[in-house]
């Protein structure tokens, strides 16, 4: 069956950050140096070609883009400076934009102005919503005067449930896409692939190996700052859940020094170190993968940074029992942005939390099937 | 008139033949394998050899001094040097002979390096035996050698340039600039040729019309250049230094006289034709949406700058497929043969850059048009061409590579979305078949030789298997033809772009200027010589001679009776030896390479003992062939 060529696809992908990819003349140098290139040696050139000829289905059904950690070897080696690494990053953005039906993600990737306005708009709506709910008078205590504690919690639960539902359905659809046409896998194979996926995510071993090839201090290493952010973020999530369990389900009034809070404080610190290192890398542009930062890349880092900073502010305020309008507003910002980040997860770079593990799983499963 | 001059003369009779043999070590290149002392010693036994030595470097000044001293002091009158290839140092030693007062042709250069030491490294003994036999053959040849003298030909300081395109005009301007008279003959009614049709030319972005105008002004304003428009060459007689070129106006009435030009050299710059695709080739001739690159270029030129969208013949064009190698790099069994039964298997070289340059023009003016480029390879070989390829790619042209044996096909489409669909197998997509919706297909047609059969027939000009005119050697003599004094400029020789055609033209101009720089030209004396006493007028040689005017039959009076005898025009003979090979009474020979010499060389090679070879006396006077050269022209 002949494949119809569609010239519009590559134009769309280019707008997501692959500005130079048309210069590719398929020499295959990228495939020769790519640590992911297999025996067929088509990684990442296959993805570029499928984009160029406009084969939307095969492009989006492939987990390839999500296996790439953007070590930048391909882009450094490309004789035409077509940016294969940047293309893979653009492909990830394009995949996120294609997976959600509202078109919001597409808008935010392609226009920095739209990204700023939408973010602000969401924050205001959420903030206003939080402020509008007034708690009973006896519950109004020092810090939680403007936004009551219970409100944060109940809205937070709602946001959490919504996000979890979206993530699960999204994950299932992505998994179906990546495994399309590969037949029913054996149970042992599934378990083995699952084990390998978890090991890779927990240790980021391949990512660290790829980054280790580049000299420099630990904070200039993409894998380590990513690990810090990942564990910090995960720890904060765990702390929030524990806090919720202790406070709401088992109404034990735990102070700052109880386990949930300690986990939260430590995780927050780890995340901030990771975010700080990542921001530094993007400012100093020490390596290929941070040479080109889109507004969408800054967006996530800025969110995490503000969340961390406001979080610590609130923590200190709670410990010192400080009150006043400044504390109120900081808390409001913290709560609104945390919810916004979770709500917009599917529309932003944060969606990789779903894509990457599933892509790894699909890749490991398929490599077992063919082995 | 050309002066009469003998090409060969007798060696003064009475002097015994004394040969000097010099075996060179070549600094070990020869002597590490071959026992050079043994070779010299064995050759000393030859009855004609008076001196036989070996030396470290014969080509060095002291090496040459050995020869000169022996000629002067030891009355050596023949020299054999056994050394490297004659292409390297034959001339060196001939000049040494000349400095010593000996005729430089009484010399034989034997190659015992490339033909013995270098090729028999594992067999010292065998290499030495072989060297002895080769040198012995050289001695046997040189003892039968006559004194030879270069052929001197008078020169007409004028050049006829055939073809008034950029190559012809470049050549004409360069020749006139060197003080030579030029007659520029152009078939069309205006100068300029193919380049005049081009809007912009790569890689300089100049307009073709400007280029042509510039060159036209140079040739038309030059007092030394006579331009003859609407004319063609119908006669080309004579030889280097003195051609007679007949120019006829194409629209001439029967009573109009031809224009005759006398010229020392002729530059052919007749250019090329665009390949015309066969009916149905990629849909050509079946759909109005399939056009050739020159047609598309002229449509693009006529498309007004104000126009917002691209249109071809009134129909909007949103996507174009350019197909490379149409009429070039054809494969037997895949492409239909040309009228001569062969396919155009050569690469037209210019169409890659021309196509990409056209794509750049489309992209610059109509950025919304989707451009597809279907190629076998992209051959952007010239300076600056690769940049055009990269720009076209960067601007979004999609490049697809089709297999040699599966050219893309075009089918008209019924729906209004596009004019048709190009189907191709794409190597860059792992051999998958792709369908491209297009509004226009542009065929990058190559270059084919122009039909200049009448000009070729005038002098049996050499034509290559690609039907373009052929040079003597693509690297060593790139603009000279086998016929001395006829030079090539531009695409009549093979596909070239403007840059290359002008380079070739100026090279041809310099070559012609060197030829015609002096009042006479000296030609090598190795041409056919007839012994009228042996010639019986059978005319077998005439049938074999490929070079018109080199060999003719003339009446001679012999013992009161008029007989027919072969006569050689040494200026036109190239010394190929075809005549000598067929002459039953051995009356015709190539000077310096006579059949007697060959016989003696073969005998020497098969002889076991050099010392047993016979002594050769001074050549009998009856063998001394005097001949006077025929006058210039025919």
Can you walk me through this structure?
The complex is a heterodimer of chains A (371) and B (634). Chain A is built from 17 helices and one strand. With 371 residues, chain A is mainly alpha-helical. Chain A has two domains: 8-99, no CATH class; 111-370, Up-down Bundle (Fumarate Reductase Cytochrome B subunit). In chain A, helix 11 packs across helix 17 (352-370). Chain A is globular, with a radius of gyration of 22 Å. Chain B has three domains: 1-150, 3-Layer(aba) Sandwich (Rossmann fold), CATH 3.40.50; 158-271 and 450-517, FAD/NAD(P)-binding domain (3-Layer(bba) Sandwich), CATH 3.50.50.60; 275-447, FAD/NAD(P)-binding domain (3-Layer(bba) Sandwich). In chain B, the strands form twelve sheets. Chain B has a five-stranded parallel beta sheet. A five-stranded parallel beta sheet of chain B has the order 18-27-21-22-23. A four-stranded parallel beta sheet of chain B has the order 3-2-4-5, with helices on both faces. Strand 1 of chain A pairs parallel with strand 26 (432-438) of chain B.
How would you describe this structure in keywords?
heterodimer, A: 371 residues, mainly alpha, Fumarate Reductase Cytochrome B subunit, B: 634 residues, alpha/beta, 3 domains, five-stranded parallel sheet, 25% strand, elongated
What's the short version?
The complex is a heterodimer of chains A (about 375) and B (about 625). With about 375 residues, chain A is mainly α.
CATH fold title of the largest domain in chain B: FAD/NAD(P)-binding domain
Number of helices of chain B: 15
The tally of beta strands of chain A, per DSSP, is 1
What does the average pLDDT of chain A come to?
A: 86
Task: Tally the helices of chain A.
Answer: 17
Beta-strand share of residues of chain A: under 5%
- Strand tally of chain B is 34
The helix/strand series of chain A, from N terminus to C terminus, equals EHHHHHHHHHHHHHHHHH
CATH topology of the largest domain in chain A: Fumarate Reductase Cytochrome B subunit
Q: Helicity range of the residues of chain A?
A: 55-70%
Number of domains of chain A: 2
The radius of gyration over CA of chain A amounts to 22 Å
Major sheet of chain A: size, sense and barrel closure? none
Roughly what percent helix of chain B?
25-40%
Global structural class of chain B:
alpha/beta
For the terminal residues of chain A, how far apart are their CA atoms?
28 Å
Low-confidence stretches of chain A: 135-142
């Amino acid at each position: 069956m002949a494949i119809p060529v569609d010239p519009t696809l590559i134009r769309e992908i280019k707008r997501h950050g692959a500005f130079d990819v048309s210069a590719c003349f398929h020499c295959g140098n990228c495939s020769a140096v790519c640590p992911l290139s297999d025996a067929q040696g088509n990684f990442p050139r296959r993805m570029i070609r499928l984009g160029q000829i406009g084969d939307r289905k095969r492009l989006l059904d492939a987990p390839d883009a999500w296996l790439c950690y953007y070590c930048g070897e391909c882009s450094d080696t490309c004789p035409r400076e077509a940016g294969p690494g940047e293309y893979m990053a653009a492909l990830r953005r394009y995949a996120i934009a294609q997976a959600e039906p509202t078109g919001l993600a597409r808008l935010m990737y392609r226009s920095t102005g739209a990204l700023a306005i939408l973010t602000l708009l969401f924050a205001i709506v959420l903030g206003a919503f939080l402020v509008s709910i007034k708690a009973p008078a006896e519950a109004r205590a020092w810090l939680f005067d403007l936004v009551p504690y219970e409100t944060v919690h109940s809205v937070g639960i709602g946001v959490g449930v919504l996000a979890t539902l979206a993530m699960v359905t999204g994950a299932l659809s992505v998994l179906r896409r990546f495994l399309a046409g590969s037949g029913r896998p054996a149970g042992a194979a599934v378990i083995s692939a699952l084990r390998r996926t978890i090991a890779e995510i927990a240790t980021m071993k391949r990512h660290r190996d790829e980054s280790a090839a580049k000299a420099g201090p630990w904070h200039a290493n993409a894998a380590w700052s990513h690990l810090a952010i990942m564990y910090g973020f995960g720890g904060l999530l765990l702390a929030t859940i524990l806090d919720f369990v202790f406070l709401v389900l088992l109404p034990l009034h735990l102070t700052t020094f109880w386990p949930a809070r300690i986990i939260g404080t430590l995780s927050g610190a780890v995340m901030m170190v990771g975010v700080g290192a990542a921001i530094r890398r993007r400012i100093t542009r020490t390596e290929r993968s941070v040479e080109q930062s889109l507004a969408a890349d800054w967006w996530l880092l800025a969110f995490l940074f503000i969340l961390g900073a406001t979080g610590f502010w609130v923590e200190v305020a709670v410990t010192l029992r400080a009150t006043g309008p400044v504390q109120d507003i900081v808390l409001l910002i913290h709560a609104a942005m945390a919810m916004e980040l979770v709500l917009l997860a599917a529309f932003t770079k944060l969606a990789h939390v779903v894509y990457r593990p599933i892509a790894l799983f699909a890749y490991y499963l398929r490599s077992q099937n063919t082995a | 008139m050309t002066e009469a001059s003998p090409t060969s003369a007798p060696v003064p009779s009475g002097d015994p033949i004394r040969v000097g043999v010099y075996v060179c070590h070549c600094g070990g290149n020869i002597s590490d394998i071959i026992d050079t002392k043994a070779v010299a010693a064995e050759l000393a036994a030859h009855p004609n050899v008076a001196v036989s030595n070996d030396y470290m470097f014969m080509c060095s000044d002291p090496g040459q001094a050995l020869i000169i001293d022996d000629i002067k002091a030891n009355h050596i009158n023949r020299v054999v040097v056994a050394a490297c290839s004659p292409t390297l140092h034959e001339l060196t030693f001939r000049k040494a002979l000349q400095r010593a007062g000996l005729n430089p042709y009484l010399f034989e250069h034997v190659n015992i390096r490339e033909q013995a030491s270098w090729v028999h490294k594992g067999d010292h003994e065998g290499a030495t035996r072989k060297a002895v036999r080769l040198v012995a053959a050289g001695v046997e040849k040189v003892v039968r050698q006559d004194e030879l003298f270069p052929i001197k030909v008078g020169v007409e300081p004028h050049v006829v340039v055939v073809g008034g395109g950029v190559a012809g005009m470049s050549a004409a301007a360069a020749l006139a600039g060197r003080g030579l008279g030029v007659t520029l003959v152009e078939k069309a009614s205006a100068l300029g040729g193919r380049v005049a049709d081009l809007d912009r030319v790569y890689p300089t972005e100049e307009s073709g019309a400007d280029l042509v105008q510039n060159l036209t002004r140079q040739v038309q304003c030059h007092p030394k250049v006579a331009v003859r428009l609407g004319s063609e060459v119908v006669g080309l007689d004579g030889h280097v230094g003195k051609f007679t070129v007949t120019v006829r106006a194409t629209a001439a009435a029967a009573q109009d006289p031809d224009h005759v030009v006398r010229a020392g050299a002729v530059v052919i710059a007749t250019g090329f034709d665009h390949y015309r695709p066969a009916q149905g080739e990629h849909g050509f001739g079946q759909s109005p949406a399939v056009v050739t690159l020159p047609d598309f270029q002229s449509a693009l030129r006529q498309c007004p700058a104000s126009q917002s969208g691209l249109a071809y013949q009134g129909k909007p064009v949103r996507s174009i497929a350019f197909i490379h190698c149409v009429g070039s790099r054809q494969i037997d069994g895949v492409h239909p043969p040309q009228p001569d039964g062969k396919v155009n298997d050569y690469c037209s070289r210019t169409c890659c850059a021309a196509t990409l340059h056209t794509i750049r023009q489309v992209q610059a003016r109509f950025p919304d048009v989707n451009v597809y480029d279907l190629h076998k390879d992209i051959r952007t070989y010239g300076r600056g061409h690769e940049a055009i390829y990269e720009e076209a790619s960067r601007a979004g042209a999609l490049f697809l590579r089709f297999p040699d044996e599966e050219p893309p096909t075009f089918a008209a489409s019924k729906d209004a979305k596009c004019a048709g669909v190009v189907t191709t197998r794409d190597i860059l997509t792992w051999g998958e078949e792709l369908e491209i919706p297009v509004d226009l297909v542009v065929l990058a047609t190559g270059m084919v030789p122009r039909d200049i059969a009448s000009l070729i027939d005038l002098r049996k000009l050499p034509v290559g298997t690609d039907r373009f005119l052929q040079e003597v050697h693509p690297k060593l003599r790139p603009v000279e033809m086998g016929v001395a004094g006829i030079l090539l400029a531009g695409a009549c020789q093979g596909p070239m772009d403007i840059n290359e055609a002008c380079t070739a033209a100026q090279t041809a101009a310099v070559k012609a200027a060197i030829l015609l720089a002096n009042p006479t030209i000296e030609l090598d004396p190795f041409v056919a010589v007839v012994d009228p006493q042996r010639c019986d007028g059978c005319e077998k040689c005439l049938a074999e001679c490929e070079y018109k005017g080199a060999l003719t039959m003339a009446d001679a009076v012999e013992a009161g009776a008029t007989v027919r005898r072969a006569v050689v025009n040494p200026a036109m003979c190239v010394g190929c030896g075809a005549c000598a090979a067929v002459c039953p009474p051995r009356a015709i020979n190539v000077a310096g390479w006579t059949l007697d010499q060959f016989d003696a060389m073969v005998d020497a090679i098969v002889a076991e003992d050099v010392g047993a070879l016979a002594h050769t006396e001074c050549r009998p006077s009856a063998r001394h062939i005097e001949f006077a050269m025929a006058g210039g022209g025919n």
